[in-house]
Write a structure and sequence with these properties.
By secondary structure, this protein is α/β, with parallel strands linked by helices. The protein is 47% helix and 13% strand.
């Protein structure tokens, strides 16, 4: 392909105009011929003039056609990239061209991957261009910017792989150029990220405002990619403006990497400031961090498609085998419980939406004779299963050796509720026989179950708790103990601590130290950080004062995005505190906070997944928008008791603030996002 300059076009136009006038004159003379007739001399002249006139007219027409064609060659449209002559799209040819002409090049695209293939040849070509004082800039669409147009999952993954390849290769080439050319390449060889969606890739070869070459993909989402080329500074003003706008709001790669490292350092510092977690459940905050970024990534790339709950708690029973003074759950009885088939259907729902972690609880799950079968069913579906139990089966009996073996094979962990290791105190608190529970604990321990004891501190056992931390040893079969504080709005049984117990509570906290036998480090940190106070613990609302901290920061309840609770009747709740587990059948809070029923209206059964509908997914999707707007406290009388999730929420809201400060920077890091067993976490 070849072209003419603007000056040449003007000359051709002048010549063509002159020829057009001359040919017009001769045409007129030719017309006179028909009037004059047969005068021989005139006839001879006219013939001569007419011949030359037609020759000149022919030259005029050819000249104008040539000028027209030459003009059109400055703007060339190809139906697809495959139709473009290789010398215009071959990246090596383009690099040789700018090196020879000593001009600059800027390339704008989603990945610009073609400029980073054939790396060994590219290194030499980039080196030659830079030595000839060329400036080369690549502008890539930032990963966080949603691509315009419909792109399927495979295309998204392909773009991500190409982008990573381009970045890695750019770094390799840049290191080579630093050695060969020197530090001057920092301003001559650059890669930028744009926050503007790239719908059309552009390549410009230019200097001092003159564009030798400008290419424009008319549509990256059109299958054939129509392609336009502008030569000899013929690019239209609209595209020049678009090209200029695409270079605005960009971040230089070197600056970007530096800011990313700053943000990652802040996240590591945040992790260090929230070190406590459950060793039994492996619930370290690194896993929350992993899911935090994975969820953001999923929602961004899939246009808001839901990220499944990380963990779901399923109550398979509303009945209970004990009668605790801190809880009225036993008053509900078995009314409305899911039948055996429905429980399996719900487990199918959970597995189908992509959740991988399930906590089986109640009431008391062992009050159902099929409990262990449900654990095995969930394990067979590939779920990581946790079990909350008091250790007393239906019929008021202990778990057998065989029961313990099956639980060991099905569950990642089991938490056993024992509020006292003294027979009389246990009887007062739970209305049951401690020896039954001790036998279950012994069988579970012998079967190799990952076992932990939950000890709920209250008025009747605060003195025993003080003794336990003083002794600093596990009181039962060397099983680790997790201390919790009794809470609740209903203190009709007088289980809450009183001001008379404050001195013992202070002694308990003062005696807490890092110990493998207890979670005392976590308890102590909650007081030191001001999340718990002695007054709030005694009131039964441990986080009462923390609400001021929450309100000032406008923090969000992240747990609503990562978990939910399914009651024994198939009603779904955002969390356990909005379910209000300590109240009986008439809980007003529970009736107000259900977000949906898994049982189909009119049928009163949980449909099978094979019937074509996952009702849990429908409910979860309907709640996502609302949850994203929820700031804490979601409900004051529930959130003031949330000792279960407050620590995790405090960490994740700290994470929110860091990520917000580095809005356009990728703060994911393999050191805290990949080198962990991230799928297993029970919230």
């Amino acid at each position: 392909m070849w072209a003419i300059s603007e000056k040449s076009k003007k000359i051709y136009s002048i010549i063509a105009t002159i020829l057009y006038v001359v040919s017009g004159i001769f045409t007129i003379v030719g017309g006179i011929r028909s009037i004059i007739g047969n005068l021989s001399i005139v006839k001879s002249v006219i013939i001569t003039i007419s011949v030359y006139g037609w020759v000149i007219l022919g030259i005029f027409l050819v000249s104008n056609v040539c000028v027209f064609l030459l003009r059109k060659k400055n703007v060339v449209v190809y139906p697809g990239r495959n139709d473009v002559p290789s010398k215009f799209i071959d990246t090596n040819s383009r690099l040789k061209y700018i090196s020879k002409k000593k001009i600059n090049m800027t390339v704008i695209g989603r990945t610009n991957i073609s400029w980073f293939r054939d790396v060994n040849a590219k290194k030499e070509l980039y080196k030659d261009a830079l030595k000839n004082d060329c400036e080369i800039t690549f502008i890539l669409q930032h990963e966080f910017v949603e691509s315009i147009g419909v792109m399927n999952e495979n295309k998204i993954e392909q773009r991500q792989e190409e982008r990573m390849e381009a970045l890695q290769t750019f770094e390799e080439i840049r290191c080579y150029l630093l050695k060969e050319v020197g530090e001057s390449i920092s301003r001559k060889f650059r890669l930028l990220f744009t926050m503007t969606p790239v719908s059309n890739s552009m390549t410009a070869l230019f200097k001092n405002g003159y564009y030798d070459f400008f290419s424009y993909d008319m549509g990256l989402n059109i299958e054939n990619n129509p392609y336009v080329m502008f030569l000899n500074n013929s690019v239209i003003q609209e595209l020049k403006d678009k090209f200029t706008r695409s270079q605005e709001n960009c971040i230089d790669l070197l600056e970007y990497k530096s800011k990313c490292e700053e943000g990652k350092a802040e996240i590591r510092e945040l992790l260090d400031s929230y070190p406590a977690f459950s060793p039994q459940r492996k619930n370290e905050n690194k896993k929350l961090l992993y899911h935090y970024f994975k969820r953001k990534d999923c929602i961004r790339k899939r246009n808001g498609e839901f990220y499944p709950p990380v963990s779901i708690q399923l109550l398979i029973a509303s009945t209970c085998t004990t009668r605790c003074i801190t809880c009225d759950q036993h008053e509900i009885g078995g009314k409305g419980e899911l039948n055996n088939e429905e429980v399996r259907n719900v487990i199918d729902y959970i597995c189908d939406i992509g959740t991988r972690n399930i906590i089986i609880s109640g009431g008391e799950p062992l009050s159902r004779d099929k409990c262990i079968e449900f654990l095995e069913y969930a394990k067979g579906k590939g779920l990581n299963v946790g079990l909350l139990t008091n250790g007393i089966k239906h019929g008021n009996v202990s778990l057998t050796d065989e029961d313990a073996r099956r639980i060991s094979e099905s569950c990642k962990w089991t938490q056993l509720s024992i509020d006292s290791f003294r027979n009389d105190t246990y009887k007062q608190i739970r209305g049951a026989d401690l020896d039954i529970v001790k036998k279950s604990a012994e069988n579970l321990k012998n079967a190799g179950v990952n076992l932990e004891i939950a000890f709920n501190i209250q008025k009747l056992n605060i003195g025993e708790a003080v003794d336990l931390v003083h002794e600093n040893t596990s009181p039962l079969y060397n099983i680790r103990v997790r201390f919790k504080f009794a809470h609740g709005l209903n203190n009709k049984n007088g289980f809450l601590l009183t001001t008379d117990d404050e001195s013992m509570l202070r002694e308990f906290i003062a005696s807490c130290s890092k110990c493998d036998c207890f979670n005392s480090e976590y308890i102590k940190s909650m007081f030191e950080n001001g999340f718990f106070t002695y007054e709030s613990i005694i009131s039964g609302k441990p986080l009462t004062l923390a609400k001021d901290y929450i309100n000032k920061k406008k923090d969000k309840c992240h747990i609503l995005d990562y978990s939910c609770k399914i009651a024994a009747d198939g009603e779904v709740y955002p969390c356990c505190y909005l379910y209000d587990p300590n109240e009986g059948a008439d809980s007003k809070m529970r009736s107000e906070n259900s977000i949906g029923a898994l049982r189909k209206e009119g049928v009163d059964l949980v449909p099978r997944l094979s019937d074509g509908e996952n009702r849990l997914k429908t409910i979860w999707l309907s709640e996502m928008g609302r949850n994203n707007e929820n700031t804490m406290p979601v409900l004051q009388r529930a959130c003031c008791r949330c000792t279960r999730h407050f620590y995790q929420n405090a960490f994740m809201n700290g994470l929110d603030r860091i990520v917000g400060n580095y809005e356009n920077y990728d703060l994911r890091d393999a050191s805290y996002c990949e080198e962990i067993d991230s799928e297993e976490i029970h919230l």
